[in-house]
């Protein structure tokens, strides 16, 4: 269209002119942007994880995260949004009405009273669901049967994520506070962007799944070092970038809260990165790039629930503690002998707990959430609420995940064959290998690892 | 028992493999190498700075053969790898005193 | 500036206060964000394509896409925007007035009646032009002369893209619907974000160019497998991320339409990814990561024209069909023996057709476009319009591209020498090779593939 | 929450309704988006640089940039923002009051008169500080002691960046123009997004640091070619993408200025990329991908100060000149024998000078900055202001950086040991190596370069 | 002096190394190779096109040994590398006329 | 005809090449290897877990030479590759029974 002309949509909008629509385009722009940012976190996570596994398993790692994204995305459209954001059955705060928004029925219409389009919020929250399931995959690379993973992802989303999202993210309807909302919300638990529903939830599930699937062959004797640390750093970078949408987007508005949350998210991450590097330097004598990437993620996890409740200094403290505690928590798996391969427990479960509980101590009335924690004279009230929130999600997720995983194991099995694990799960499950770099230099190099004779298109 | 080693152009590996199969050779070992020789190299440019790269990618093919088969194998490889341009590579033969098949412990001609 | 102070610009803006300006900052923010997102799609495409070629051609692949971006960007500023969005010569809807906005004359001024800055829209649409040209490159990697490609890119943009963009994207001026607008728009073809102008257009050109340039040496006998599948997935991820700007940004507003489009884009992509994996699993026994990445792109292509016209369930169906049909369409090139190396035809031409035509069946009045397709009782009217739109773009692009490519071939040739193709086009055309990874481990490794002796700076 | 319900925040906002708040959500959305975009530039820079070094130094390169980000982020929160944006001591325009916003005290509150949240602006500007420090690292890869770098980064941010940001970016308070603002602002120097404060500043520091740290072993005799050019291109792409936030975000509003700036940024980059490729083709016979990536960055650097002051044609000219001049400037280091390894001087110092000074020639009243340069009849007035701005920042940065670097060298040393430099600084300083790709193909490949025996968790 | 060369499965390298250490062998050189043999290959699929990859990653282990130690070294490697499945690889022995340790210039048995 | 094989430190390859050229050697073949020996390895740390890497990157240089030239070539390589620190590597000589230049089919001394 010509630039001086109003598009049709714009004409109907009439911002400020007669108020035909309550739509706030700034809030909408920010929600849409945030939804896109959170989508990017999912491949970001895939690359972060993918760089950490061995070169023979990187594609499988990507496929676990991306496959889960596909399937959970579809489930979200049909029932997930409704289970999470539908009116709570019996106003009990346990589960949303599945039929209320089945297949997003009715949400497409242009509601003149809406401040932002319903679908924008649906999309934003969809990404949360997909990401949370993807997080779990880090516990079981190299060895899990792909079909079993895909089934697990679907079932877990329905039985664990959708209900828990209802508990935490559903604030209820209209004037009546928390009418139809989740029970943790009603209780007053503060979890701004998902420390419980996303991170504790995924971390607890990762623990259960790692135990059911079992250790990688050779672990922990055989070293299994990251095959590509630039990929890990790229993944961490995309996660950080996207996380601004995750956290500041959870204000569901482009307002002061979003600004504060954004800054706190930044500061906490810097703090956690620093803390992880300091711990490494003191313990191992060297600060590693894997440590920096891990610190970034740990800080982001911990500030997620707390970002609206603390001051920048509080955010820094949360970050520093998260970096230090998570880096120490990695030792746990060696002591307890569960092979949580990429440390989902140490980073997401522990980091989520750190952030969720520290709200009880560091929350300040001056922050947007408007609550004082123990150190700001608010007593232990908020702290105990936080503990209830954290541990109920932890317990629910741990138990239900165990049951799901055991049933899948009983019916179709969860492990790739030993031979396939040794020769590489990329080849076994996906008939691909990630790299063919020999072919790069000068000379028409046929590529030794794959001096293959093709039957291009034989089947396609 | 002899070990025939050939340094050939990478895009000729497939042809060499085919030629060897035709000779009844059922196994070989291949690795990446880089060769320096008459062929010369090429120039790469990075932000205006030129780098002369005088090592050219080649592939090493190693085949264990019975004494009797050496000449035909060498000939087959030479034939298959030839393009006629400089840099086609070399084939050489080294005496082998013993060969063992790891799987069975067989030795000598049995092992290959 | 100090934080409590209004910047000058803001003071002039006076949202709500006296209406000195009609500027909607929310819409503007979303258009700017979308333009940046679409820019990112271009290197995203370069990496997606780059990972799929052999290691000796990856830089050339990047350079085809990025070089086209440079040149088309400049052309767009001078004449492209005007040819696409200028008032149609003779109101025929075939081509915009080249001189109207030559060099963007006059668009820099702060127009108080504009809802968003003209330049934001110019930039947003610039990215479409650059991306569309880049898409074509996927048909001819490994073998096309770089100079010929650059000339082709410039000529094709001027003779094919700019006119076709006028047909499809120019909605005309002011009150009179489609006055000065494109003929397909006037006809009532629905193409929200470029199924015809971008994907069918590029796909048809890819077919013509692949035929004129000819097959890679050894194709299809010699296998030419992707050299870096993590790069492919990264590229697909950046494409998906950016595509939210491409589609939802095409609402040119942060409104309900943008929200619906966003959600539909997400759901269709999940569906197409799933469908591609299911087809692979049934046909080959394995779901591949290349399949997942391809499915993502196929779904995005197909939903591009349709995203404002269908319900989420409709979007899912389009995605599922696109995934299945495009993955099958890849077989075509083996049967018809044209070497469309990275399947631009199967993904963009076929995917674009799927999406454009399915609007005729699946469009629903409930969606923002407000039209009913055949399955919603709207008859075949819309379907036939869609077919006219799809096939006129297809035909025009195919024929004109053929002519352009043949002329370039006749004058300067389009193929690199056989020797250069064998030894690698990166080295031959760009005097570079992509990787020197040998140098990574411990030990001061001089890098075998490049044990070079430098003459650093000898010429610079 | 349910989709048809107003979130609490939204209810308080009342856009247009009674004006309880001056908050402009569109501007806020764009500032938040821009802040996230600029954050992404930092890992983008790390990857751009990382791809250019040898495989044995890539992690150290990433760690220099990311480590600086962590530490400068924390410093910014405590004192940086206050030093840059606090009221100028004695209204001299040299330094902001450190205590005014110490630890961001007071900026968290919801100020009803603010057009955008103070914290959003704090976060946006934080990224500038972190990025600027990171830029310097490109001068000294492969050989600088990591501890010395981290100390340098912290000290340089405090003594150089924070003050210079005050000079350039602080526009002062309220009605009185530039009251409390920086001296360059008061002088009337035009530097829209940081040609002086960011690029000339970092480039001059890079020169000083490169000289103090000294040349890499073997330079320039031994060739040290980029180890991964796809990484370089990816980094350049992320930089370009993020730079739209950097430049257009510097409008601190989603308005016409932002639109113009965005378009100019795009056009200049295309021009610089083209120019670099043309110079290469003429000089070396080949257009390289490293040239394309370098051209992108050079163009972005040069348009940074000028993007609000010139027309699109002016932006193109700046881009073309920047591409040509910067590519030529790379030869300087070979002639003068300082090892500015990744050409920070040639790209950022020279590019920044090109852009800053050309404003004096090419500025046009028609552009948002509203000033005419020499070629538009404005005389030499603006040009001389620009020169003062450019060279005072250059001089200050060069001298203070020298002093800082010399002191650090005297106290703890700045060079890694020769042995560590030869064997690779990744291993020496970070106990890691970047790639272990041998393990990718079929077969359970233990990875030769690292046929390591692990003691997993021995220490953790 | 002999050169014992072994082509083994990659995940057996660690075991071979351990076995050699047990024999008092203090040095060895290892490289990546790809083997073609009875073991056959595998199929990869890219957008539906199948690629038969018949080269399988193997590792070459080279050990210089005194004439006296050859048999025990060969036996140790064979033992350590065996899985009993096709593709376990080969071990062969080649005569060496001279060995020099670069650092010291020592030759013969001293050099290894 | 002999095959001289040298395992050297990677950053010494350029020096070895230069030394060989000075001897009139016009061709050689180079490949990446990893060595295990007295030199020991190094430790890498990933999330606090330590990995002892005892294989160190080395480069294998192979040169076919006339019998007469063997000693000077071995000496030249040894000289050029020496740093005097542990891990400088080995040079060894193996008899070659036949050499063929692929391009021309020439054999023996003609072929190199
Ligand atoms: N003396 C040699 N020792 C070992 N390898 C050699 C020798 N001479 C040549 N080669 C190998 O043979 C390859 C081809 O040699 P070159 O001299 O380029 O061509 P040609 O064999 O056709 O004369 C080289 O790249 C190198 O790998
Ligand atoms: N004739 C040969 N020459 C050189 N290497 C061989 C030969 N035959 C087999 N090999 C190597 O030994 C490996 C194992 O051989 P293969 O025939 O697959 O199994 P096996 O030795 O158990 O019978 C091959 O992958 C190849 O690397
Ligand atoms: N017995 C051996 N057989 C084969 N290669 C060996 C042997 N011993 C050492 N090497 C090779 O020589 C290299 C240097 O050996 P090392 O013992 O570390 O130092 P040095 O030779 O200086 O005593 C090793 O890294 C390895 O590649």
Order of helices and strands of chain B: EHEEEEHEE
> Which percent bin holds the helix content of chain A?
55-70%
Question: Which hetero compounds are present in the coordinates?
Answer: adenosine-5'-diphosphate
The total tally of domains of chain A equals 1
Task: Please state how the strands of the largest beta sheet of chain B are arranged side by side.
Answer: 2-5-1-6
Large-scale geometry of chain A: globular
What structural class do the secondary elements of chain B suggest? alpha+beta
Describe this structure in words.
The complex is a heterohexamer, with three copies of chain A (460 residues) and three copies of chain B (112 residues). Chain A has 16 helices and one strand. Chain A has a single domain (23-411), classed as Ammonium transporter AmtB like domains (Ammonium transporter fold, Orthogonal Bundle), CATH 1.10.3430. In chain A, helix 4 (118-136) packs parallel to helix 7, helix 7 (195-213) runs antiparallel to helix 13 (344-362) and helix 7 (195-213) packs parallel to helix 14. Chain A is globular and about 65 Å long. Helix content of chain A is 61%, strand content 1%. With 460 residues, chain A is mainly alpha-helical. Chain A starts with 7 loop residues before the first helix and ends in a 5-residue tail after the last strand. Mean pLDDT of chain A is 91; it is low at 1-18 and 440-460. Chain B has 112 residues and is α+β, with helices and mostly antiparallel strands. Chain B has helices spanning 13-22, 70-81, and strands spanning 2-8, 28-36, 42-46, 49-53, 56-65, 90-95, 98-101. Chain B has a four-stranded antiparallel β-sheet, covered by helices on one side. In chain B, strand 3 and strand 4 form a beta hairpin. The B-E interface holds B 1, 3, 17, 26-32, 64, 94-103, 105, 111-112 and E 2, 6-8, 31-38, 55, 58, 60, 70, 74, 77-78, 81-95. Strand 7 (98-101) of chain B pairs antiparallel with strand 6 of chain E, so a sheet runs across the interface. One adenosine-5'-diphosphate (ADP) sits between chains F (7, 35-39, 56, 58, 86-90) and E (27-29, 62-64, 101, 103, 112).
């Amino acid at each position: 269209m010509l630039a001086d002309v109003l598009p049709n949509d714009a004409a109907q909008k009439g911002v400020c002119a007669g108020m035909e629509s309550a739509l706030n385009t700034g809030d909408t722009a920010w929600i849409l942007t945030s939804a896109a940012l959170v989508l990017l976190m999912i491949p970001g996570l895939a690359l972060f994880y993918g760089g950490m596994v061995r070169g023979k398993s990187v594609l499988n790692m990507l496929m676990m995260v991306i496959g889960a994204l596909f399937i959970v995305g579809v489930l979200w459209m049909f029932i997930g949004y409704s289970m999470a954001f539908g009116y709570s059955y019996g106003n009990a705060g346990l589960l949303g009405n599945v039929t209320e928004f089945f297949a997003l029925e009715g949400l497409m219409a242009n509601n003149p009273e809406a401040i932002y389009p319903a679908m924008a919020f649906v999309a934003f929250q969809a990404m949360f669901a997909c990401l949370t399931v993807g997080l779990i995959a880090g516990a079981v690379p190299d060895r899990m049967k792909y079909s079993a993973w895909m089934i697990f992802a679907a079932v877990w989303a329905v039985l664990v994520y959708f209900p828990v999202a209802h508990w935490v993210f559903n604030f209820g309807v209209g004037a009546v506070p928390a009418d139809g909302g989740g029970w943790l919300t009603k209780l007053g638990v503060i979890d701004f962007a998902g420390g419980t529903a996303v991170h504790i939830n995924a971390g607890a599930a990762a623990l259960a799944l790692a135990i059911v699937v079992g250790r990688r062959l050779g672990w922990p004797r055989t070293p299994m070092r990251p095959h590509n640390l630039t990929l890990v750093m790229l993944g961490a970078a995309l996660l950080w970038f996207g996380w601004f949408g995750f956290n500041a987007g959870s204000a569901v508005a482009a307002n002061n809260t979003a600004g504060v949350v954004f800054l706190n998210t930044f500061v906490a991450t810097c703090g956690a990165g620093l803390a992880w590097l300091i711990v490494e330097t003191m313990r191992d004598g060297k600060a590693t790039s894997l440590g920096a990437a891990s610190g970034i993620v740990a800080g982001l996890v911990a500030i997620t629930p707390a970002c609206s409740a603390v001051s920048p200094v509080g955010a820094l403290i949360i970050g520093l503690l998260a970096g230090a505690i998570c880096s120490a928590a990695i030792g746990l798996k060696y002591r307890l002998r569960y092979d949580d391969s990429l440390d989902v427990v140490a980073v997401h479960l522990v980091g989520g707990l750190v952030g969720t509980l520290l709200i009880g101590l560091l929350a300040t009335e001056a922050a947007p959430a408007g609550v004082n924690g123990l150190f700001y004279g608010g007593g232990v009230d908020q702290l105990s609420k936080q503990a209830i929130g954290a541990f109920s999600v932890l317990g629910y997720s741990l138990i239900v995940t165990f049951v799901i995983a055991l049933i899948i194991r009983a019916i179709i099995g969860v492990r790739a064959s030993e031979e396939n694990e040794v020769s590489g799960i990329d080849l076994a499950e996906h008939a691909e290998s990630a790299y063919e770099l020999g072919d790069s230099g000068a000379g028409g190099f046929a590529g030794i690892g794959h001096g293959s004779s093709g039957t291009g298109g034989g089947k396609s | 028992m002899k070990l025939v080693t050939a340094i050939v152009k990478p895009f000729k590996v497939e042809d060499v493999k085919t030629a060897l199969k035709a000779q009844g050779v059922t196994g070989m070992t291949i690795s990446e190498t880089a060769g320096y020789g008459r062929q010369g190299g090429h120039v790469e440019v990075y932000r205006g700075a030129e780098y002369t790269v005088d090592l050219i990618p080649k592939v090493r093919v190693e085949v264990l053969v019975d004494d009797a088969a050496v000449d035909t194998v060498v000939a087959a490889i030479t034939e298959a790898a030839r393009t006629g341009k400089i840099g086609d590579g070399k084939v050489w033969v080294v005496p082998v005193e013993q060969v063992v098949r790891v799987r069975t412990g067989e030795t000598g001609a049995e092992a290959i």
